Amino acid sequence: MDWVTEFLMNWLPALSSSALLAFALWLSRNLLITRLTNAVRHEYDEKLTRLKAELTGKQDLFKADLRAKELQLESIKTTALSGITHRQSLLFEKQVYAIEVLWSQVIDLLPVKGAAQNLAIIEFDSALKLASKNSDARDMFEMIASNIDVTSVDTKETHKVRPFISPLAWAYFSAYSAILGHAALKMHMLKNGLDYPAIFNDEKLKEVISTALPHQTEYIEKVNSGAYYHLLDELETLMLLAFNNTLKGEEEGKAAVIQAAELIKVSEELTHTNKDATIKQNA
Predict the structure, then answer these.
(1) Which of 50, 139, 164, 180 could be joined to 112 by an S-S link, Cβ 3.0–4.6 Å?
(2) Cα–Cα distance between 211 and 267 in angstroms, integer?
(3) Taking a C-beta distance cutoff of 8 angstroms, is the pair 75, 116 a contact?
(4) pLDDT tens digits, residue range 187-225?
(5) 12-16, 65-69, 106-110: range with lowest mean pLDDT
C-alpha cells in the first residue's frame, strides 16, 4: 500500500494539472470558435442587412423611375391626343364651312337651274335659229332669263374650299356646275340670237352625266341634252349624302374615289369646252 500511496502523492498533482490544462484549452477553443462564429455571423448579418437595404433602395428608385416614365408617357399621350383632338376640331370646322360655301353656291345657282328647266321643254336648235332672226324671240328669252349670262356659273369661291370637300362631293358638284354652265351658255346664245350650235359638245356633257350617274346611262342615251335638267335633283341629293358622310367622319371607299376622280376629270373638260365656246362666240 505504501507504493500506491506514494504513487498517488507524486503523480496526482501532475495529472490534475494536465487535466485542468486540457480542459482549459478545450474550453478556450470552444469559446474562440463560438466568438469567431458569432463575429462572422454578425458581420454576415450586417452585410446581408446592408445588401437588403441597398436592394430595397434600388427597387424603390427603380419603381420611382418607372413611375416617372409612366407619368411622362401619359403626359406625352395626353398632349398628343389633345393635339390630335384640336387638329380634328379645326379640320371639322373647316369641313363644315366648306360644305356651307358649296351648298350656298348650289342655292345661288337656282336661277340657272330655272333656265335649264326652260331649256328642257324647247328644241334648242330650232329656238336658236328663230332667235337669230326674230327680235321678239330674243326679247322673250331675255325676259325669262334676264339674270343669266355666261358668267352666271362662277365657282371661284367654292374652289377655295375644295381641300376640305370630300372627292365624291366635289365630283358631284363639278358635274352639277358643268351642266348648269352648259345651260347658261345656251341661254346666253338664245338671248343674243347667236346661231352657232356647232360650238356645243353634247357628247362631252353626256359623258359627265353618265360618269356621275352610271345607273342613268340608258336614259341619258335616249334623251337630248336639255332633258339632263331632270337629273339635277338627283345630283343635289348625292351631294347632300356625301356631305353627311363627311360630317359623320365616314371615309369613302376605293370605288367611290376612283369614280370621283374620273367624274372630276370629265367635268373639268366640259367646263373648258364651255369656256372655249364662249370665247369663240364672242370673237
Answers:
(1) 180
(2) 9
(3) no
(4) 999 998 888 877 777 788 888 888 888 889 899 889 888
(5) 12-16
